[in-house]
Structures are given as structure tokens and as C-alpha cells.
Amino acid sequence: MLIDGFGRKVDYLRVSVTERCNFRCQYCMPEKPFSWVPRENLLSYEDLFKFIKVGIDEGIKKVRVTGGEPLLRDDLDYFIKLVNDYKNDIDLALTTNGFLLPQMAQKLRDAGLKRINISLDTLDTSRAKQIAQKDVLSTVLEGIKKAKEVGLKIKINCVPLKGINDIDVLEVLEFCKKEGFVVRYIEFMENSFAKSSSKGLNSDEILEIISKKYKNIVKVPRDSSSPAQYYKLEDGYEFGIIEPHKDDFCASCNRIRLTAEGFLIPCLYFEDAMSIKDAIRANDIDKATEILRLVLKNKPEKNKWSNEKDNKVSQRAFYQTGG
Ligand SMILES: Nc1nc2c(ncn2[C@@H]2O[C@H](COP(=O)(O)OP(=O)(O)OP(=O)(O)O)[C@@H](O)[C@H]2O)c(=O)[nH]1
Ligand SMILES: C[S@@+](CC[C@H](N)C(=O)[O-])C[C@H]1O[C@@H](n2cnc3c(N)ncnc32)[C@H](O)[C@@H]1O
Ligand code: SF4
Ligand code: SF4
After folding, report:
1. For ligand 3, is residue 69 a contact (CB within 6 Å)?
2. CA gap 209, 37 in Å, rounded
3. Any ligand 2 atom below 6 A from CB of 69
4. Concatenated DSSP letters for 147-158?
5. What is the pLDDT of residues 80-101, one digit of tens each?
6. How much is the pTM?
7. Average pLDDT over residues 219-242
8. Residue 281 annotated as binding?
9. In this structure, which residue's CA is closest to atom 9 in ligand 1?
């Protein structure tokens, strides 16, 4: 079992397979980075898998593949199958912007993927274009449809921004309710790579919008395996809000992240990281395990987004960390 320096059990590994992306979301990667990590610096699927096995053998129960945009990396279905075939009871999932799902959904399902989280900030074509800086909505909706058709269980991620897609909060909820998807709203996390004018809605503001139509929203007891706080409408529909600005958000953190370059990142906010690349490439499993334990020992207690006194802008890029 993996326990961090604050006694939290860590059983969720998020693996970013690429930092590259085909969108330029204003809250994540509004500008193309000055340079990408050269391909030879990336860990191969086999090496990423080697580390995932280390994690699973140490107690990881949930693995999420993310990016950048993970579907941009060739043969992602091959990687999904490697992990799925190793231990079928691992909760294996993928987070994607959905743009390449029309052609990839069936392959991913065939590789053993069961569930998928797809980003959808608005159902309005021009606002989707404004956020992603590309005309994406119709293809993303086609991708969502395809994912549903092939039997993937779907959650939708939506980042509401003030003055942009705050007016879409209810429409996204209605869409998800109708389609049988869970929606989670994510509070915008300030970081130095995002467009500086971006301002997110906090969970109270999101709840206020939803409660204009739905009365008596009830808070569901927190399930510590997920970062989202869930809320229930009177008709039984549940939606989530990811609330990193709340003081107690990190108390149940069970997550660690591996980047495509082989850096283990203990927290989404901070820049600390240790590389497992050399150990993994040398097949030194003991060393990789030692680094994993050390990173967990030094995992921070909490982020600084929730702390009024501190600088609340993280210097970490979401597209490198995988969110
Ligand atoms: N600050 C912070 N945000 C997180 C953390 N985990 C997830 N998030 C945010 O929530 C977003 C959506 O997460 P997903 O990739 O859908 O994964 P998940 O919420 O763990 O998914 P489920 O397993 O379906 O609950 C991430 O991209 C982050 O923006 C975390 O540990 N800290
Ligand atoms: C970094 S992306 C990677 C996966 C994929 N490209 C996607 O967009 O779903 C993962 C998630 O992070 C969220 N995200 C990115 N930047 C964020 C920010 N600054 N604050 C909150 N969420 C953010 C996105 O909305 C997305 O749901
Ligand atoms: S949020 Fe996802 S889709 Fe948008 S720029 Fe970041 S990595 Fe790309
Ligand atoms: S901000 Fe850091 S400590 Fe808090 S939940 Fe996210 S990864 Fe965990």
C-alpha cells in the first residue's frame, strides 16, 4: 500500500502520454509552447507500462490516461490493451477532448477501455471555438455520440469561465442529463500558462446558476476516490463539482502523476518532480519503486489555490501534467 507523508492512501495514477494538443484552450494552452519535448525524450509505451506495473504492484487501483491530448499519440489503443490485459480489475479510464473519438472510440473499446471523460465546455459553436481557438464542437459531439454507441461509460468535464461559457452551465447539464452522462464542472485553476484574463466560476456560483432551475440540491457524501464533490437534484440526477479552491479539497488526495517524459509529480499545483526515466529504461525496478516512495513521502499537504494569502497562480502547465 502507498501512503504519503500526511497519511493519505495513494491508489490513483494519472499517466500523461503526450503534452501535445490539437486544441489551444484558453485555460490550458492558449499559445503553442515555444518548443515541444523531443520525441526521443518521451517514454515508450512499454516503459510507461513498466512503471504502471510498479505502481499496481505497490497498490495503485486506478489508472487514468491523459495528456495533452492523449488520442494524438499513435496506437493509443495498443497502450490501453497493455494495461487492461495486465490486471483487468484496475479502474482504467481516459480523459480526452473528444476530437479524434469518431475514428478512435471503437478501437479503444475493443482494447478494453470501459469509461471515458470528455471535455465539453459549451454547446454553442462559436463559444467552443472561442475557448479552444479552433472550430471543434460538431466533431466533438460526433465523438461523444460514437463513444456512447460503442458502449463507453461517459463523464463530461466542463470548465465554466466568467463572461464566456458561464451562460452554458445549465445547457451542458441538460444535455448530460438527457444523454445519461455525469457532468462535472471544474473550477478554473489559475496557472501561468493560461490566458491571463481567464476567470473561473467557483462552486457556489455554479450551484447558484443550477439552483435557478433546480431547487433543493443536496450534497452527496464525498467519495474519496474521486476529486469531485457530487450533488443530487430532486429527480435523482447527480452532477459533480471539482473544487480545488476549497480549503479541504486536498485532504482526500489519492493521486500521483506521471508525465510522458517520465517525471513523477506529487501535486498538480507545485513544480516538484522526480524522474523515473533512467531507472525504468535500465529495468531497475527497485530504484523506480524507491523514487515512487520518496515522491510520496514529500507530497505536499495541499495546493495554494485555496490560500488567500499566497500567490494563487501555479507555475505548472496542465497540458504537461495531464490535469
Ligand atoms: N487540483 C486538482 N485537480 C484535479 C485533481 N484531479 C483531477 N483534477 C481536476 O479534474 C479534472 C478532471 O479530472 P479527470 O481527468 O476527468 O479525472 P477524475 O476526475 O479523477 O475522474 P473520475 O475517475 O471519473 O472521477 C482534471 O483535469 C483536473 O483539472 C487533483 O488531484 N487536484
Ligand atoms: C489537461 S486536459 C488533458 C486531456 C484532454 N486534452 C482534455 O482536454 O480532456 C484534462 C482536463 O484538464 C482541464 N483543465 C485544463 N486546464 C485547466 C485549468 N486551468 N483549470 C481547470 N481545469 C483545467 C480540462 O478541462 C480537461 O478536462
Ligand atoms: S485542456 Fe486538453 S484539449 Fe484543451 S488545450 Fe489543454 S490539453 Fe488540450
Ligand atoms: S492540488 Fe495537489 S494535493 Fe491537492 S488534490 Fe490536487 S494533486 Fe492532490
Report:
1. yes
2. 41
3. yes
4. HHHTT-EEEEEE
5. 999 999 988 999 999 999 999 9
6. 0.97
7. 94
8. no
9. 323
